[in-house]
Write a structure and sequence with these properties.
59% strand, four-stranded antiparallel beta sheet, mainly beta, flat, 34 strands
Length: 314
Amino acid sequence: MNELFNVNKNGKGGFIDLTGKVVIPLQFDSTGYFKNGFGYIEKQDKCGFVNKFGITVVAPKFDDCGFFSEGFAPVMIEGKGWGFIDKQGKWLVKPQFNSANSFSEGMALVGIYDNKARDLKYGYIDRRGRKVIDFNFFLASDFSEGLAAVGFEDNCGYIDKTGKFIIKPRFLFAQKFSEGLAGVEIRASKKYGYINKFGNLVIPDKYDDSGDFSGNLAPVKIDKEWGYIDKNNNIVIEPQFDEAWNFSEGLARVINCRKSCKFEYIDKNRDVVAEFLFETSGADDFHNGLAAIVTDEGGAGYINKKGAFVWREK
């Protein structure tokens, strides 16, 4: 099923389809993401969810809401904390956490404030609502490709779904695994390279920053400019951008300030699909065929992969 896209106009929110057609009327105080068959809605400063037919399946009664994933969504009640509900709005886990992410690969990252440490400590629950990995970590990420990056301040490694360290903590920073590789900051060099799931450094630590692999390419920073490498560490797109993000659905979002600062979408051949002035615009990655844009006039909109607007707020 194609996902829908949230739009807001004249103080009301609804949802459009891939062509820009309004399929759920603008009737809510506000709307947000539509993921995995459910859309975020707000009424009177409370959030809930609608399905693809515009039927409210979870009444707006929460103070904050994450998105549905694997059948559950994190929601927050002020003064009680975060918990998880199912598609009928019934509690899987009642509010008790200080932070909560949506489920990923059967696990959800949750945090509890540690008064002694004066900071959040993170652990994981499963889809039965059971705590399966204790609150041991000051840094943690969602599970990706069977592993999660976790750490203690500036000492990061990777655990499996039992909480066992598969790659022992030894990195200053660790990113998620994507297409079998993960970007890490090496302590000795303070540079980024990429490891495999055995913890072996397979792309040397010579980059000032890095992103995730997607479509066999990853953004990397050399000095002050970003470009893209492949898994053999070949530079496929020369460093030339002021900012660069991962490829998503075949296109990557970059900022190019060589003449005037612009958001651009490029393909793997470095061909520019669309560009927008940076000073008055914002842009997101492509998801399900469209990308969210903030136009020069200050209104939100969506473009397709040809760079044409299918919806504009103004």
